[in-house]
Amino acid sequence: DDLRCGQCQIRPGVDSAIQFQTRNLLAVPMIDRDKLIGVLEVVNKIGEDTFSPLDLRVMEIFSSIAASVVTNARLIEEHIRNERFAAIGQAITTLSHHTKNIVTGLSSSADLIDMGLQSGNVDVLKRSWPVFKRSTKRVSNFVQDMLTFSKTRSPVREECTASFLIEEALETFQELFARKNIALQVDATHALKTVWVDPEAL
Questions:
Q1: Which three-class secondary structure state does DSSP give residue 139?
Q2: How far is residue 91's CA from residue 134's CA, in Å, rounded to a whole number?
Q3: pTM (2 decimals)?
Q4: What is the DSSP string of 87-133?
Q5: What is the pLDDT along the chain (202 residues), one digit of tens a residue?
């Protein structure tokens, strides 16, 4: 608890243990905002036997600056660490949302397939099976993207229409909408232009 500066006495046996000859030593506490950050020491003043009061004053000024630098560095490190945690949290939220969308498509089409099997309605099966296959493919692509997330992914582009993408999205969620009594009308007649995109990524 003693934060005073000044000349220090060397404990007997220390020099012999570290094979070093200490003639004199000046130790100054590094204090920032009344908190001890560390201790700054200088050993063996060149040309003189002891450190002077001026040396002590210079060291006090230097130790104060050094303490502020160390404190600021720790604050910056903590800030960076917090930002990393926030980024990880945001990434998990995004991944969870995307996973939920895929699972919704799977469960909705699975429910329709069950209905078709139970009722023997082949038309329902034919309409639901492509949605189920696309959803399983999306799961595979999603897992692959996660495995290679550290690498740059080149888009796999192909020709398709915006109306095709809209229809796929509607098929994925139509059963969910039906269960929640949501009526959705979409007019995609003006979205027939061919585009060169990555439909899986979209």
A1: helix
A2: 24
A3: 0.40
A4: HHHHHHHHHHHHHHHHHHHHHHHHHHHHHHHHHT-HHHHHHHHHHHH
A5: 444 455 555 566 666 666 677 778 888 898 888 888 888 888 888 876 788 888 888 888 888 888 888 888 888 888 888 888 888 888 788 778 778 877 877 887 788 888 888 888 888 888 888 888 888 888 877 777 776 665 666 788 999 888 888 888 887 777 778 778 888 888 888 888 888 998 877 7
